[in-house]
């Protein structure tokens, strides 16, 4: 492929052969991949700050309910299980894509979306129960930190869902090409990332909360 | 009904102050004049097509510069209002409430809406050219960053005439900034204005890191990269580590205010001290974010006007990187007096002092670069020379402040005010001015008048010392910051009056700069060479102003200061490096989405400020729709043909 500068041609129609250019320059799609990795670093710091505030405020219940009293672990374990599975299915989606199997790709993305949506549904139910039992965001610093940390993760998942649906439509329209391939790679990276964050949420918020 | 409307209007618009009525009128008149002029000269499509939707980094850079100079004007007027109030004891020019609002808006505007965008403007104008690149890594995102900054800044600025300005200081410590002590909308303007523009800053950080790491011209190893680009890299690395902390901090403050949460409240188990820790974990790196690029500018200027290689290149790189790392370990020096304990204070005192080492290395390197060079002193060089003593004194008073026991004495006094203005004006503002003067011909294709420039330089510099030196003494005499008035019996009168005179001198310096620009536009002295300063780096190899695609063919870099070495070789009779053949150039298409999406952010922010969900929610939906529309766009690029490149290059009188 011709290299006309640091914007190497990456037209959607040109399918293959878009790796490294002659002088070790990268094409547009790989620039974007790198940009996304850096975005993930910033997101890590964002969550890191939220975890830090949670840890600082943990236990500041101001006489109100404590996590140990209210957390219901079965629901949380179900959420965890569902999210881990969805991470796995998003991996299967990428595998289908690498085989060039568009149908399989869309199907696995759909499964991932459904799993993600049930995760959100469970989380919303959990929040509603908690509020019902007298622990809302304004109850105490403990619960403010809880809702904001867990809610930020939930918001990320929700955004991921909308985004994944948009990508599925684009896959229907354009098939698998260098652009959609990058998009699928990025969303699956994002999805795994949210999974990792959730494992921290599970350990620091829920496990340590009930212990 | 009519009463209701009146009630609403008197809440909505800021009333009761003649200064603000004056501002209302002038804002109204300016808007009418702009709309009229655009309509009369039929410039609306030009504005939209050439500017509002552009993804060209050079134009985005120009827009940043214009916006930030306007903000410098606004922040400067604020500063002069404050200085006028302080010139005479017991003065009643500004009420205490108004004074609080003014020092808050002045601080925020100067750092976030003047220094940051001026810096981003220079990034955009210079970095791709210096790297030998055709663009930044993400042109669309670049335009989005600009418009987010712009609409964020506008949101912050309207608080002045609509709803009321924030008044809890530029870092808005709770509980003062909490809902119980600041029930008005001013704080919410603060939060949303900074939040929206902050997202833009974060994206710029990502954009330039990728640009620098991935888009350098063939052959330009990292250790051959010009020093300004290095400083941008270090500043951007600091941005991506620091700005997410700010985002979270402001979001938590907003959630406290809006949803009654208890992160920083005094009741409900909240912890205001956590806010102070968080905000300074961003705030301290932030001052290095803005000063590091100034260091890069000085390195370029010192080498160019001494006609010598930069002394100690490697140690310069090392100093930049260690400063950006160390800046994350000093934040607690901002609250030595708030009971952290002796060991914590000692740790942060030592880390703070350590930063003086790499900074000292840089100063000595600049001096050695100039030592025995063939020096010349056009305006960019003057600003560099003016910077050095100013920054050295500012740095030394900073080290004094970093001694924790001493800080118990100086804390929140005018000594501190003098210190940070010395580094912010002497380091940051002078640095960026130097950069603007240096790269101006490259950006606009004409030179700035040197004579008026020298007047500007001297009035600024003399004004600076007259303004801030007395403040060190005022601080030692016990004058604290953020006081709006004092009695005759204090004995602070003469020094304050002197300081105010210095402030106005700087104002005159600014007017000289405006005059210099207007004068130079009128009597335009075109830069036909593309290389007016006999430069060393790649940006000087192309015509001024740079064509849309920057480089017709990508330069092949073999060494540091490649252009300079090439000129030496040609002077010795060697043939110039062969140029590769022209090929069609791949370019990104313009897009209106960044502008529209940022406008929706403005709408959403405004809605949240006034607690109008009917406005905020559609705003957020608008943002989401814009993102989706962008995601579905596939034809986002086009090619410039070889013929057109040839025509453009010939027009620039540099036939290839
Ligand atoms: C151009 C000349 C300037 C003058 C005459 C000036 C004057 C002042 C004055 C009178 C105050 C209030 C001090 C107090 O009562 O506490 C102040 C505060 C401040 N200034 Fe400036 N200033 C100037 C430029 C700048 C620049 C260029 C920056 C930053 C890049 C800056 C950043 C600040 C900050 C952060 C504050 C603290 C606001 C607060 O207390 O919350 N100033 N300045
Ligand atoms: Cu600091």
Automatic annotation (TrEMBL), chain A:
Keyword annotations: Cell membrane, Electron transport, Membrane, Oxidoreductase, Transmembrane, Transmembrane helix, Transport
Subcellular location: Cell membrane
InterPro entries tied to this protein: Cyt_c/ubiquinol_Oxase_su3, Cyt_c_oxidase-like_su3, Cyt_c_oxidase_su3-like_sf, Cyt_c_oxidase_su3_a-hlx, Cyt_c_ubiqinol_oxidase_su3, Ubiquinol_oxase_su3_dom
Domain of life where this protein originates: Bacteria
Basic and acidic residues: compositionally biased ranges: 13-24
UniProt xrefs under SUPFAM superfamilies: Cytochrome c oxidase subunit III-like
TM region(s), chain numbering: 36-56, 76-96, 108-125, 145-169, 189-209
Main location: membrane
Cellular component GO terms held in the UniProt record: plasma membrane
Assembly, per entry: Heterooctamer of two A chains, two B chains, two C chains and two D chains.
Family membership: Belongs to the cytochrome c oxidase subunit 3 family.
Role noted for this protein: Cytochrome bo(3) ubiquinol terminal oxidase is the component of the aerobic respiratory chain of E.coli that predominates when cells are grown at high aeration. Has proton pump activity across the membrane in addition to electron transfer, pumping 2 protons/electron.
Protein name stated in the entry: Cytochrome bo(3) ubiquinol oxidase subunit 3
Gene for this chain: qoxC
UniProtKB/TrEMBL annotation, chain B:
Reactions catalysed: 2 a quinol + O2 = 2 a quinone + 2 H2O
Occurrences of domain Cytochrome oxidase subunit I profile (ranges): 40-558
PANTHER family attached to this UniProt entry: CYTOCHROME BO(3) UBIQUINOL OXIDASE SUBUNIT 1 (PTHR10422:SF35), CYTOCHROME C OXIDASE SUBUNIT 1 (PTHR10422)
Name assigned to this protein: Quinol oxidase polypeptide I
Cofactor: Cu cation; ferriheme a
Keyword Cell membrane applies: yes
Keyword annotations: Cell membrane, Copper, Electron transport, Heme, Hydrogen ion transport, Ion transport, Iron, Membrane, Metal-binding, Respiratory chain, Transmembrane, Transmembrane helix, Transport
Membrane topology: Multi-pass membrane protein
Domain of life: Bacteria
GO BP field: aerobic respiration; electron transport coupled proton transport; respiratory electron transport chain
One cellular-component annotation, GO: plasma membrane
Location relative to the cell: Cell membrane
Pathway the protein acts in: Energy metabolism; oxidative phosphorylation
One GO molecular-function entry: cytochrome-c oxidase activity
InterPro entries, sorted: Cyt_c_oxase-like_su1_dom (IPR023616), Cyt_c_oxase-like_su1_sf (IPR036927), Cyt_C_Oxase_1 (IPR000883)
Family: Belongs to the heme-copper respiratory oxidase family.
Pfam family membership, one: COX1
Residue ranges of the TM segments: 20-41, 62-82, 102-127, 139-162, 189-210, 230-255, 275-298, 310-332, 344-368, 380-404, 416-440, 452-473, 493-515, 592-610, 616-632
């Amino acid at each position: 492929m011709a290299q006309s500068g640091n914007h190497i041609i990456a037209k959607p129609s040109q399918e293959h052969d878009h790796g490294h250019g002659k002088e070790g320059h990268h094409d547009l799609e790989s620039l974007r991949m790198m940009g996304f990795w850096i975005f993930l670093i910033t997101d890590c710091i964002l969550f890191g700050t939220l975890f830090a505030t949670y840890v600082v405020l943990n236990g500041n219940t101001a006489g109100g309910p404590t996590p140990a009293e209210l957390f219901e672990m079965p629901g949380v374990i179900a959420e965890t299980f569902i999210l881990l599975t969805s991470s796995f299915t998003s991996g299967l989606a990428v595998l289908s894509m690498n085989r060039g199997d568009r149908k399989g790709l869309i199907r696995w993305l759909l499964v991932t979306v459904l799993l993600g949506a049930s995760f959100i549904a469970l989380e919303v139910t959990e929040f509603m129960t908690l509020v019902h039992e007298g622990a809302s965001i304004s109850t105490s610093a403990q619960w403010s930190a809880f809702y904001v940390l867990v809610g930020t993760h939930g918001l990320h998942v929700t955004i991921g869902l909308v985004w994944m649906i948009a990508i599925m439509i684009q896959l229907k329209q354009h098939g698998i090409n260098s652009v959609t391939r990058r998009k699928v790679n990025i969303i699956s990276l994002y999805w795994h990332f949210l999974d990792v964050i959730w494992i921290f949420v599970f350990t620091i918020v829920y496990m340590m909360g009930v212990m | 009904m009519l009463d209701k409307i009146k009630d609403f209007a008197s809440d909505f618009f800021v009333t009761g102050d003649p200064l603000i009525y004056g501002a209302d009128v002038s804002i109204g008149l300016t808007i009418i004049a702009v709309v009229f002029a655009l309509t009369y000269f039929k410039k609306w499509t030009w504005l939209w097509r050439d500017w509002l939707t552009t993804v060209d980094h050079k134009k985005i850079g120009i827009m940043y510069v214009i916006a930030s100079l306007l903000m410098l004007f606004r922040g400067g007027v604020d500063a002069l209002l404050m200085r006028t109030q302080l010139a005479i004891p017991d003065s009643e020019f500004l009420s205490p409430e108004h004074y609080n609002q003014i020092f808050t808006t002045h601080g925020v505007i100067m750092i976030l809406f003047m220094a940051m965008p001026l810096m981003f403007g220079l990034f955009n104008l210079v970095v791709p050219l210096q790297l030998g690149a055709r663009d930044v890594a993400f042109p669309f995102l670049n335009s989005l960053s600009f418009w987010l900054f712009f609409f964020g800044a506008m949101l912050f600025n309207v608080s002045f005439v609509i709803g009321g300005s924030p008044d809890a200081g530029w870092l808005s410590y709770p509980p003062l900034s909490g809902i119980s002590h600041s029930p008005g909308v001013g704080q919410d303007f603060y939060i949303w204005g900074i939040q929206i523009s902050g997202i833009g800053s974060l994206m710029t950080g990502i954009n330039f890191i990728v640009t620098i790491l991935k888009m350098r011209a063939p052959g330009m190893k990292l250790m051959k990269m010009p020093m300004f680009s290095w400083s941008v890299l270090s500043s951007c690395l600091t941005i991506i580590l620091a700005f997410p902390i700010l985002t979270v901090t402001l979001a938590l403050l907003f959630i406290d205010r809006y949803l009654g949460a208890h992160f920083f409240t005094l009741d409900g188990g909240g912890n205001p001290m956590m806010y102070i820790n968080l905000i300074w974990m961003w705030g301290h790196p932030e001052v290095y974010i803005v000063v590091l690029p100034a260091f890069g500018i000085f390195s370029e200027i010192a080498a160019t006007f001494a006609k010598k290689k930069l002394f100690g290149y490697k140690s310069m790189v090392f100093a930049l990187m260690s400063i950006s790392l160390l800046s994350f370990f000093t934040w607690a020096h901002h609250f030595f007096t708030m009971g952290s304990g002796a060991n914590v204070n000692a740790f942060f005192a030592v880390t703070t002092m350590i930063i003086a080492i790499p900074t000292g290395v840089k100063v000595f390197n600049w001096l050695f670069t100039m030592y025995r060079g063939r020096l010349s002193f056009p305006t960019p060089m003057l600003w560099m020379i003016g910077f050095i003593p100013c920054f050295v004194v500012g740095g030394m008073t900073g080290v004094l402040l970093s001694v924790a026991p001493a800080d118990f004495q100086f804390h929140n006094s005018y000594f501190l005010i003098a210190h940070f203005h010395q580094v912010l004006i002497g380091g940051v503002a002078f640095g960026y001015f130097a950069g603007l003067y240096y790269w101006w011909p490259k950006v606009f294709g004409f030179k700035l008048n040197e004579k008026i420039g020298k007047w500007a330089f001297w009035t600024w510099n003399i004004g600076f010392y007259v303004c801030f030196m007395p403040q060190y003494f005022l601080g030692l005499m016990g004058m604290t910051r953020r006081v709006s008035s004092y009695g005759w019996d204090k004995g602070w009168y003469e020094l304050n009056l002197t300081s105010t005179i210095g402030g106005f001198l700087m104002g005159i310096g600014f007017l000289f700069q405006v005059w210099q620009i207007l004068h130079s536009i009128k009597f335009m002295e075109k830069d036909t060479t593309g290389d007016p300063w006999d430069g060393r780096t790649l940006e000087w190899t192309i015509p001024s102003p740079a064509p849309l695609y920057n480089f017709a063919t990508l330069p092949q870099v073999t060494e540091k200061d490649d252009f300079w070495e090439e000129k030496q070789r040609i002077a010795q009779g060697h043939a110039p490096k062969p140029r590769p053949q022209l090929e069609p150039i791949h370019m990104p298409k313009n897009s209106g989405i960044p502008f529209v999406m940022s406008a929706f952010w403005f709408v959403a922010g405004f809605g949240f400020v006034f607690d109008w969900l009917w406005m905020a929610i559609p705003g957020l939906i608008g943002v989401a729709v814009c993102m989706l529309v962008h995601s579905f766009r596939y034809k986002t690029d086009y090619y410039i043909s070889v013929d057109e490149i040839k025509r453009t290059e010939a027009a620039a009188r540099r036939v290839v």
